[in-house]
Amino acid sequence: MSRAVVVWLGLVVLAMTTPFDAHARSRPPQRTLRRPSIRSQVPIATNTVWPRQEVMDLAVRAYRCGRDAGAFDGSLLTVIDYSLPSTEKRLWVLDLARRRVLFHELVAHGEGSGENYAVEFSNEPGSRQSSIGVFRTEDVYRGGNGYSLRLAGLEPGVNDLAMERRIVMHGAPYVSARAVNALGRLGRSWGCPALPSGISGRVIDRIKGGSAVFAYYPDQRWLRTSRYLKCSVVNVASR
Predict the structure, then answer these.
(1) CA 234, CA 239: separation in Å to the nearest integer?
(2) What distance in Å separates the CA atoms of residue 51 and residue 44, rounded to the nearest whole number?
(3) Which of 68, 81, 118, 134 pairs with 194 at a CA distance of 20 to 30 A?
């Protein structure tokens, strides 16, 4: 083969390869695709509001005391913070074992306890006031307020007449945003922790049958003397 032919073939090969090679050299390096992290695949809870730390600490202390004495079944704890106004969601249902907030709802107080804020509490029949302290949920029934949950008060002199007073958890139309808009507060019960009608049945079915309810207010006498906050399992068990 002549030298001219060899040169011509080399030019043809160069012409065919150079554009491709130049493009390959100028192309940016491929980015490595990363799998999403495990954390990004976990659904984010939409309800992450917990009770204030001070209230939460007291509620868990009371729950553990009662649980150790055999007063409660399971890991559910309902917390009501009556130091908050009725216009705020102040009832929580917590699953302590799974560290989850199951419900966070409005709840009414008794008409004898105050207007938007509850400031007075009673264990007396006919007072129409709410009671504070530690309760145990009991059975359900249908009565004048519809589907209702009986509450047993566990603290002598504080809430132990709850059954006699018919203090129950039930739904009520006056526990709603509409009531707040009309009244500037929720409507009030005769001492029962009344819930919004649309959610009350679900809450009741979740907590019925022996779970703990902790109704808080910064009443200094109760905080100093409660068996469940100054825990003696022997005293609690022999109530």
Answers:
(1) 9
(2) 19
(3) 68
